[in-house]
Amino acid sequence: MNYKAKIYVTLKKSILDPQGRTVERSLHNAGFSSVQNVRVGKFIELELSGESFEVKTQLEAMTRDILSNPIMESVRFELEEAVMSSEF
Amino acid sequence: MNYKAKIYVTLKKSILDPQGRTVERSLHNAGFSSVQNVRVGKFIELELSGESFEVKTQLEAMTRDILSNPIMESVRFELEEAVMSSEF
Fold this sequence. Notes:
Number of strands of chain A: 3
Low-confidence stretches of chain A: none
Helix content of chain A: 25-40%
Oligomer: homodimer
């Protein structure tokens, strides 16, 4: 079975986010003055195949050990069965 | 009213993603050999306030004009009313 995973990696709330601060300042300068608490994280999409249980275990291991830094980042993923997709 | 927005910025399918290729190679080297088509995008969270319609219009403008490059990237957002959240 083929699966598609969406992985969200975000800095923990207690960690300063200089990239987010910069984006926030740009948005203020562009007139979006009500914007606050901008946080910039990563959104990783990937495909993988195997048995359902095995795929979940693999995904847990790779998000924890490779795709995120557990000291500074939180990570969460969604797993869906891949059927077909197109984008133009 | 206070809102929380989640913004997903991804490279268009037709654009090469060298960061994704590097992550894919690392995952293969770590034994996750079934992984393919890794794409790395951005996940931006922010808070903003105002009337519902005004907030939607602002968010459309800022995602299109500042937070993404429409030539190379696709962007999608979710908007939710902020109630309260905590993270430890």
